[in-house]
Write a structure and sequence with these properties.
The complex is a heterodimer of chains A (163) and B (258).
Chain A: H1 2-24, H2 35-44, H3 49-55, E1 66-69, H4 72-82, H5 101-122, E2 126-129, H6 134-148
Parallel strand pairs in A: 1-2
Chain B: E1 41-46, H1 53-66, E2 71-75, H2 83-91, H3 97-121, E3 125-129, H4 132-141, H5 146-152, E4 161-166, H6 169-178, H7 197-215, E5 221-225, H8 230-249
Parallel strand pairs in B: 1-3, 1-4, 2-3, 4-5
Helix pairs in contact in B: 1-8, 2-3, 4-7
The chains are: A mainly alpha (163), B alpha/beta (258).
């Protein structure tokens, strides 16, 4: 519970200071992870599914939400290739499912991925196949975003009149 | 951000009003912490700042311990995890009503999991100096959505008894000024009603008291007139508390020896 609530506090702080002001100014906000991360991670930790959704009901619904789907093995291989040590909470070590960090990571993140499979259709997220090359993924991402964010002539209302 | 096609059977937590059993979770609870049939009792003492809660709790504790009960006290923002963070946050100028509410909720969750539930399971009487109602009142005054708040605190346990120490602002002001004086947060200075701490205190506490009394029925407060002398209030609390505790589970009487 405290894990979930601390993250929600941090999220609220960033939402109010970093997300809403630029949105009001007509800018595009790119969020690396959003409330969906909490839905997947907190529920895996045993928090009530509906409760955490209502907790985040103060969040702005994104115009577009992308989900980079990757099988657990690919995820583990990538992490192993560039990092020595798995983070304690990232591996779900707090849950005590395994004393081996890698094994724990596999179990925990595997369940997190299962949870995402439910979240994706529920919130209409766009799925990007993250097994493919970075170039290919980026091509897809740009394509999807281009469909959503048509550059429009922005109306700026709060400018000082030019004398 | 709830799902548009919510598949949850009962999205509205079966609220505090109605079928919530004392001692059980108010709403959706903590799924990984089942709490059926624990032997302890949870008693909340509520009331605004400076109403005399801690004095009453101190006296209750002594009385209960002499009677043979194990007593555990818990109080608002006293969690080991959150107290330093909350103090730092209050000192900075970055808190807003939402992060304020969430920090309090985190503190409460920590104490619930680490102090309150273990003590209840071990058969203690838990005396809570303030409970979620203080959070609901403070957030209510600051305009936070009521339904959202009630859902947020759906993981809280409904106390077996909630004593609400009721007072009017006039009496409260004299009492606070006689003791420790007015404090920035207790005067709601963050709401920026004006620079005068006296006016702000009066306006803010008035609103708070209205919030508390609006919750009295919903959460089955036992309203206690806190304008009376300390021992009169204490007598009333003890009378109600023993009526509740004694028939249920009185600890073994001390053996009377000749």
């Amino acid at each position: 519970m405290t894990f979930s609530l601390l993250h929600a506090t941090d999220f609220a702080d960033r939402l109010l200071y970093k997300v809403i002001p630029p949105l009001k100014a007509g800018m595009i906000v790119l969020a690396d992870r959003y409330a969906y991360t909490a839905f997947a991670r907190d529920v895996t930790r045993g928090v009530d599914r509906q409760w955490v959704r209502e907790l985040y009901s103060f969040a702005v619904r994104p115009d577009l939400a992308l989900y980079f789907r990757v099988p657990i093995d690919v995820s583990v291989d990538r992490l192993m290739a560039r990092r020595v040590k798995l983070k304690f909470y990232e591996a779900g070590m707090d849950l005590g499912w395994s004393t081996n960090p890698l094994e724990s990571f596999r179990l925990f993140q595997g369940k997190v991925l299962d949870e995402y499979d439910q979240i994706v259709p529920e919130f209409g997220m766009e799925v990007i196949d993250a097994k493919s090359s970075i170039t290919e993924q980026q091509r897809l991402v740009r394509q999807v975003i281009a469909q959503h964010a048509q550059p429009q002539r922005m109306e700026i209302t709060d400018d000082e009149p030019v004398v | 951000m709830t799902s548009p096609s919510s598949d949850a059977p009962d999205a509205t937590p079966h609220g505090p009003n109605g079928d919530s059993p004392a001692g059980g979770y108010y709403g959706r609870g903590i799924p990984y912490l089942p709490i059926h049939g624990y032997p302890g009792k949870l008693i909340a003492i509520e009331g605004t700042d400076g109403v005399g809660r801690s004095t009453q709790i101190e006296l209750l504790r002594e009385w209960l311990e002499v009677k043979g009960y194990g007593v555990v006290e818990t109080g608002w923002t006293r969690s080991r995890l959150m107290q330093p963070t909350i103090e730092i946050a209050k000192g900075s100028n970055t808190l807003n009503k939402l992060t304020f509410v969430l920090l309090y909720a985190t503190d409460f969750a920590d104490r619930l999991e680490k102090e309150i539930i273990p003590a209840l399971k071990a058969g203690f009487v838990v005396l809570s100096d303030r409970y979620i109602f203080t959070a609901l009142a403070r957030a209510g005054v600051r305009g936070v959505d009521r339904q959202w708040l009630r859902n947020l605190y759906g993981f809280a346990i409904a106390p077996h008894m909630v004593f609400y120490l009721n007072i009017d602002v006039k009496t409260l002001i004299t009492r606070v000024l006689e003791s420790r004086g007015m404090d920035f947060w207790e005067s709601g200075m963050d709401l920026k009603h004006g620079d005068d701490i006296y006016d702000s205190f009066r306006a803010y506490q008035n609103k708070l008291l209205r919030e508390y009394s609006s919750m009295a029925d919903e959460f089955q407060f036992r309203v206690v007139d806190a304008r009376r002398p300390v021992n009169r209030i204490q007598d009333e609390l003890r009378k109600q508390l023993s009526a509740f505790l004694e028939p249920a589970e009185k600890p073994a009487d001390p053996v009377l020896t000749r």
